[in-house]
Amino acid sequence: MSDAGFGRLSDAPATFLVAGARVVDPSRDLDEVADLGVRDGVIVAPGDVPAGAERFDGGGLVLAPGFCDLHVHLRDPGDPAAESLESGARAAAHGGFTTVCAMPNTEPPIDDAAAVTDLIERARDAACRVRVIGAVTSGRGGEALADLGGMTAAGAIGFSDDGSAVPGPGPVSEALAALAALGRPLIEHAEDPALANGGVMRAGPIAVALGLRGWPAAAEGAIVERDLALAEETGTRIHLTHLSTGGALAAVRAAKTRGVAVTCDVTPHHLALTESWVGGDRRFAWEEPGPIGAGASRAFDGACRVNPPLPARDDALALLEGVADGTVDAIATDHAPHPANRKLVPFDEAAPGLIGLETALSLGLAAVAAGQLTLTALVAALATRPAAIIGEQRGLATGATADLVLFDPDARWHVEAATLASVSSNTPLLDMELPGVVRFTVSEGRATYRSRG
Amino acid sequence: MTVGTPTPAWTHRHLLDVDLLTRPEIERVLDLADQMRTARETREFRSLLDLETVALAFYEPSTRTRVSFELAAKALGATVVDLAVERSSAGKGESLVDTLRTLRRCGATIVVLRHASSGAPYLAARETDLSIVNGGDGAHAHPTQALLDALTLREALGNLTGRVVAIVGDVAHSRVARSNIHALTALGARVRVGGPTAWVEGFGDRRGVEVATTLEAALDGADAVMTLRVQTERGAVAGVGSLAEYVDGWRLDDERMLLAAPGAPILHPGPTNEGVELTAALANGPRSLIGRQVEHGVSVRMAVLALVAGYA
Fold first, then answer.
1. Do A299 and B175 touch (CB under 8 A)?
2. Best residue of A197, A201, A347 to probe chain B, by most B CBs closer than 10 Å
3. B149 and B123, same structural domain?
4. Residues B256 and B284 in one domain
5. Fewer CB within 10 Å, N or C, chain B?
6. ipTM of the complex
């Protein structure tokens, strides 16, 4: 994708008018057609926009608060063949995100204050806000705690050993004690490695048919149950990321009812895709699945290898219900770019992960079109609720700094390397046509992405 | 040149698994294999594939499958190269796709691929313009084995519709079992998979397939019995107790075969662990079709190579 259309947070604040868009602002329970003005990066009454300012015809478009992704891999430092701060932030802006939270499993890992500071400094002129998540343990080694206090002072917004759960009993208990004092959440990748046992796709009938080693739901459930018990006992805030099973979600729902300080996110691919995709089927979770063997010539695509693995259909439907009722606080992409050479290998050798920043809105809108979610629930899960988790404001009230996205929910686009801003194109959605085209993204009052035409 | 019956038109450039074939297509392969058995003696088709170069890319050790493919390709006049993975660039970490693309540039047109990873032939078929024949991928599929088993069973039993074929042993780790389930059910047979619970879990919810977790239930009245190699080298005995326990509960012998239909034949994909899956007496006795399976291997692979190359 060319450079044209992208802006930076260091650009001058924007001034423009959006006329007649459907304004969806969950922070004020608002869903109505209205005009919205922005002058010098601040939301103003439409009449206060100077004459001659840029004007967007909002007919048929949705105007929403900017999206906030709690879980991305920018591969920076260390892996420019996959992504960089610059390209990842553009992918975010292209997808309607105005904030991304960068995971620390880089090369080297982000596990000290200097590394946090370096990323924050370099992100000042990126195409979206980049918030930094620090490693819990030194080198993500799962043993000695990293300098959590130093990283918090440097600006880290939470801590995770993403890619792995923080091992128990010692490290996770020490981490929770330290984080309680710092007021930062533990962001947990819930996977028990012994129970996962080298599984490469969700355990079940498709794994049996394909002769692939299965990853049982219990691998997630065991760590979720452990963490909920610890959160309840210690009162420390825990955020469970990329939940993929209905069982784990039910445990979270019960814990929330008891008042446990827990939040969680799910990825778009665990909401819309299923284990059948590994077998070559390309139907969304809410569609009737094909028989085992449907689409078999597409089977074993390394683009479908992800951790946690693509869910069973019942799990995906349970997760969608969780987004609808608010048990799932956020949709986070786990944007995990990989160059082709790590994916064009046999399935069990493929690097896990798929890109998500530029397709999250589209998958969400497909779910809305299928009646699985309301548009308001989708916007709340993409924008307002995740922002609240990291203490950011989101809302389209007059006086607020403009942080918003304008998109066409009905226009369709073709997913291909040339239409993606990410360096990588590892997604099984490649070559599909999806609904939802972002027209304009504004982060911190600056225009960060503008579609052409 | 055209050989075999003209219908149905053969549309497959690859043989990845049997589940991509219809019943008439499977029957077409078997009919052509019968024709190839004779042709091998008369050398009728000795130039059929003389414009083709068949590369054998075996990323797992193999004797019978590799030799069988080599002889099949040579019997049809193809040029044959053996990648010899252990002394090739693949052994230096070159990726599978890069190795296959190099073979293509060298002139290979058909690759027979065996790989420890399930699905590797699907990747090869998508990412190269070679014609790919699956010679066994991980625990997933072994289509030519299933086709030669079907040919052997058809020869022994006639029409397979309604016949019960018991597949006994480590079904969970077996690519032979998976492909046989597809081939035999497509041909109208009922497949009964039998073994310790951990080795047959998850196979019961398919049409035409039933699961038995006792030897008695597995063999009861079966028209034919196929026992699978216990993959001791893949640590597969884990999960079902010890090898001794398996032998105690599941090793086939002449007495246990009395549970099956009278005279029911015994098959094994080889190589056998004599005394583990079955007794030497049974393997070498009159019910055994194990030798016949090997003989059919060459003719089935001749048929498959001719079909994917578009010459039949």
1. no
2. A347
3. no
4. yes
5. N
6. 0.94
pLDDT at B1 over 50: no
Nearest to B178 among A211, A302, A349 (CB): A211
Does residue A347 belong to any structural domain of this protein?
A: yes
Largest Cα–Cα separation, chain A: 65
pLDDT tens digits for range B27-83: 999 999 999 999 999 999 999 999 999 999 999 989 999 999 999 999 999 999 999
**What pLDDT is stored for residue A96 in this prediction?**
98
Residue B255 burial (CB count, 10 A):
9
B218-241: pLDDT as tens digits: 999 999 999 999 877 655 566 778
Q: How far is B287 from chain A (nearest CA, A)?
A: 31
Query: How far does A383 lie from chain B, in Å, by closest CA?
Result: 38
Structure tokens at B239: 């999960």
For helices B23-42 and B64-75, angle between their N-to-C axes, nearest 10 degrees: 70
Q: How near does any CA of chain A get to the CA of B45, in Å? A: 31
Contact A346 B205 (CB under 8 A): no
Residues of A in contact with B139 (CB under 8 A): 211-212
Per the structure, the complete domain to which residue B212 belongs is given by 143-293
Cβ–Cβ contacts within 10 Å for residue A326, how many?
13
CATH code for the domain in which residue A110 is found: 3.20.20.140
Q: Where are the alpha helices (DSSP H) in B95-142?
A: 96-105, 120-127
Contact residues on chain A for B120, CB-CB shorter than 8 A:
300, 346
Q: What is the pLDDT of residues A62-119, one digit of tens each?
A: 999 999 999 999 999 999 999 999 999 999 999 999 999 999 999 999 999 999 999 9
Closest Cα in chain A to B175: A211
The answer as to whether A201 is a domain residue is: yes
Q: Which ranges of A243-303 does DSSP label H, i.e. alpha helix?
A: 246-257, 268-272
CA-closest candidate to residue A346, choices B99, B146, B102: B99
Say if residue A29 is exposed, middle or buried (CB neighbours under 10 Å; 0-12, 13-18, 19+). exposed
Is the Cβ of B97 closer than 8 Å to some Cβ of chain A? yes
Residues A428-439, mean pLDDT to the nearest whole number: 98
Select from A208, A277, A278 the residue whose CB has the most chain B CBs within 10 Å, as the one to mutate to test that interface. Answer: A208
